[in-house]
Amino acid sequence: MKAGSRGQLEQRLLVLVTLALVAFGLVMVYSATSAAAALGKGDPVTFLKRQGVYALAGVALMLLASRFDHRRLRQLAPPLVLAALGLCAAVLVVAPEINGAKRWLDLGPASFQPSELAKLALLVWAAAYLARKGPPQTLGELWRPIGMLTSLFAGLILFEPDLGTTVALILMLAGMLVVAGVPGRTLAGAGTLATVAGLAAIWIEPYRRERVFSFLDPWADAENAGFQSVQAIIGIGSGGLTGKGLGEGVQKINYLPEQQTDMILAVIGEELGLIGVTAVIAAFAAFAFAGFTVALRLLHHLEPVGVGARSLGECLSLQLKALLAQYVVKKIA
To answer: Above pLDDT 90, what percent of the chain?
Structure first.
C-alpha cells in the first residue's frame, strides 16, 4: 500500500473512531443518568441534552480545524498562553466550589474548564518554540522558558486543586520533548525533579494523601475515602462477561458518585460487561495507533519538528486523560 493511501486510511480511522466514541458516549451518558433523574422526579434527558450540545460543538470545531492552516497556529500561541494563564488564575477567584475544588467557569447553560485550555495552549506554544529553537540540550535550556511556563501552569492547576490534570499536562509535554529529540540525560533530570515535586504535592496535602492510600487499599475505608473506588469495582465486577444489559445497571443509582463523568467506565462494565469495556479500550487503542502514526509521519517525513511534536502531543493528551480515568476506575496499575 502506498504511503499516501496509508495516511488517508489512518486519518479516516481517526475520524471514524472519534465519531463512534462520541455517539457511544451519548448513549452511556443517558443510560448513566436517566434512571436517577427519573427517580428524583427530574428530567431524565438533562445530561443527554447538555452532552449533545457539547458533541455538536465539538464536531463543528473539528470540521473548522480540518480546514485551518496549521502553520498559523504559531501566531496564536502567545495569545493562547496569555488567555489560558488569565483564565486559570480567574477560576481560583470567581469559580464556584464544587466538591471542594474550583475548576469550572459557568458560562450560562454551559461550563468551561480552563485547565483544558492550558493543555492546548502549552501544546501549541511548546511546539512553536521547539520548531523555532530546536530541542533544548541541558536542564538550564529546558527550564528557560519551557520549564518555567509549565511550572506556572502546573502550580495554578494544583491550586484548584486538580492533580490529575497536572500530571497529564506534564506527561503530555514529556512526550513532545522525547519526539523532539531532547537528550535522555536532560529528560531524566527533569523527570526526577518533576517526580519529587509531584510526591511533595501529594504529601503536603492531607486529602491527596488520603486519596492515594484509599486508592491503594479502598476496602480499608470502604464507606468513606474508598467509597468511590469500591463502588466502581463492584459495578465492573458484577457485569461479568456480557453485562446486565444497557440501562439495567443499579450502581449508577445513588451508589456511584459522578456516574456520568469520572465513573462512566464502571457503568459500562456493569451494563455491557468485559466485552463492552474491552471495546472501549480497543477504540482508544485504535485512536492512539492512528494518531501516533500520523504524528510520527509528520515528524520524520513531511513537516518540521514542531508540527510532529504538536500532533503527537494532541494525541497523547487525549490518551492520557482516558488512561488516567481507566486507571482510577479499574485500579489496574
So the answer is: 31
For residues 137-152, one letter each, b for 16 or more C-beta atoms within 10 angstroms of the residue's C-beta and e for the rest, the string is eebebbeeebbebbeb
C-beta of residue 312 within 8 angstroms of C-beta of residue 175:
yes
The three cell numbers of residue 286 are 485504535
Residue in the block written with cell 465539538:
58
The helix-helix angle for 227-239 and 264-297 (nearest 10°) equals 90
- Three-state SS string across 265-280, please? HHHHHHHHHHHHHHHH
Instruction: Say if residues 104 and 95 touch (Cβ distance below 8 Å).
Output: yes
Half-sphere exposure of 128 (CA within 13 A, CB side): 19
The one-letter amino acid at 324: L
d(CA 152, CA 175): 19
pTM listed for this prediction: 0.80
pLDDT band, residue 331 (cuts 50/70/90): very low
Looking from the CA of 243 toward its CB, the CA atoms found within 13 Å total: 23
Q: β-pairing, 105-107 with 110-112?
A: antiparallel
Residue 330 has pLDDT above 70, yes or no: no
pLDDT digits (tens, 9 = 90+) for 162-191: 888 898 899 888 888 887 888 999 999 999
Q: How many CB atoms lie within 10 A of CB 220?
A: 11
**Beta bridge mates, 110:** 107
Distance of CA 136 to the CA centre of its chain: 26
Going by C-beta distance under 8 Å and a sequence separation of 6 or more, which residues neighbour residue 33?
44, 46, 47, 48, 252, 259, 260
Cα dihedral sign, 178-13-125-169: negative
Give Dmax (Cα) for the chain: 61
Q: How far apart are CA 283 and CA 302, in angstroms?
A: 27
